[in-house]
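Bench notes, bay 3.
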Amino acid sequence: MSSTPTTRSTSLTLRRTYPVARGRLFAAWTTPNAIKQFFGPGDVAVTEASLDLRVGGSYRIGMQQPDGEIWVIKGVYRELDPPSKIVCTWAWEEDDPGLEHESLLTLEFLDRGEESELVLTHENFRDATQRDSHQEGWTTILAQLDGALRPLQITGIDLSGYMVKDAPRAMAFYREVLGLEPSRIYPENRGAEYELPDGTVFGLWGGGGKVMPFQPSNGILFAVTDLDAALAALKERDVPIVQQLETPNCRMAAINDSEGNLVFLHRRKESRLNSIGLT
C-alpha cells in the first residue's frame, strides 16, 4: 500500500494502492458513514457528511478541530463515473464568501488485479503554502482510508434493548412509567421497538419462548434532560429508585422495569455536554 506524491506550485498528485477492488474504494468516497470514518485527519472528527451524488449535486463535510471549532468543506460534483472517477470542486467555507477559494479535486480509481490504486489530484491552489497544507492532510487521510476498508466495519449500534418475560406487560411499563410509545410492535405481541428523539432505537424482546430465553440485563442508560425532575416523577408513581451514582462526567439513577431489568436514567454534566456540542 504505497503512497507517492507529485507536486507543482499550485497542484499535487498522490497515488496509493489498497488491497480491495476499486468498487469498494469508490464506495468509501461516496458513502457518508465511510467518509466519517477516514476523512478527518488525525484528531479531527467528521461531524457531517452530506452528499448529493449526481453531476451538479453538491456535498458538504463538517470537520471538528481539536479545539471544538467546525471547519466546513463544500463543493459541486463535476463528473461521476462509478467506479472509475470523481471530479468535484473544493472550497473551505468562510464567514465572508468573498474570501472562499475554489480548487479542483479529481479521484481516479484504477484496477490493479486483486488491488486498486487511487490517484488523487488536487489543483488550482491559491499558492504553494495552501498546497503543502493540503498535501499533509491528504497524506494522513489516505493512510486512514486503510482502516475504513476493513471487511468487518462496525459503524454504530442499530438497536439495543432488553429481553422480557412478558412483552405486553413490559410495553405497558415503558409506556406508563417512561412515556415511551412503540414505533413498531412485533408479530404476536412479542416485543416492540422505540425510535428515540436522538435517532437511536431501543427494543424489547420476549414472550412465548419464541426468541432467546429471558435473562435480566443492566446495560441501557437512557438520557434525560433533567434527572432531578425525572426522579421526582418516579417517586410520585411509587417507583423505587434502586441506585444513584455520580461520576466526574455524569449523574445517573437506576430502577427495575416490570421484568427485573435494571434501567438507568442518565444525565451528562454541563461541562461534558458543552465539550461534545450537546448544549
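Next record in the batch:
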Amino acid sequence: MKTGKPKAGLRFPADEARHPWLPVLLRMHALVDAGIATAVSDEERRRGVGRACRRGCDVCCRTQADIPVFQIELAGISWYGAEKLEGPRRAAVRAGLARHVAGARECPFLVEQACAVHPVRPMGCRLFTVFGRPCAEGEDPFHTRRPDLLAPPPGLLARAYREMLPFHGVTDPKDQEDWLARGLVGTLAVNLPTRDWRSLARLMDAAS
C-alpha cells in the first residue's frame, strides 16, 4: 500500500524561526496525515464502508486511557495552547487544564466535542481511525472490534520516527535504524491522560 508523499501541511513561519523543533513536528505530522489519508481512501474502497470518525464523535477523546504522546508533540501542544489559542476556546482549555487530574480519561483539550489543539494533536490521535459504525458510549474498538480499526500503512511510522529522532539527538542513520529495530522509540513516549497539565495552564496565564 502506498503511503503517498507528505503534503505541505500547516506552516507557521514566524514561530518556526523561533522554535527550531517546530518544523520537525510539522513535517512529521504532515507525513503521517498524508499516509493515513491514502490508507483510509484505499480501505474505504476495499471495505465498501466509510470512515466512522468525524467531528462530534468524541468517545475516544473521553474514554481512552492510553494515548501515547512524544516529547516533541508535548512541546507542540504547549506552544499551540499558550501562543495560538484565543478567545472562548482558550478560556475553556485553560479552565479544563486547571481542573485536570492526572489519570482522568477525558482529554483536557476536548471543547464542545472537538479537539481544541487539532492542528498539533498527537500521532496517536491521527492514526486512530474506525470504519463502519461510530463507537458506542464507552466502547474501545481495539478490544470490541479490532478489524474495524485502520492498521498503520507499512513503513509509515518508521518514516515519521526518522523525522523525529534527531530531536532526541539520534542523528546517525545507522543509530536510527537500531532504535527502530529494537523498538526503542516507544520509550520516548508518555501517556497523555497521566500528564499533569496544570503547568500548561500556568504557561497560558503567563502568555495572556
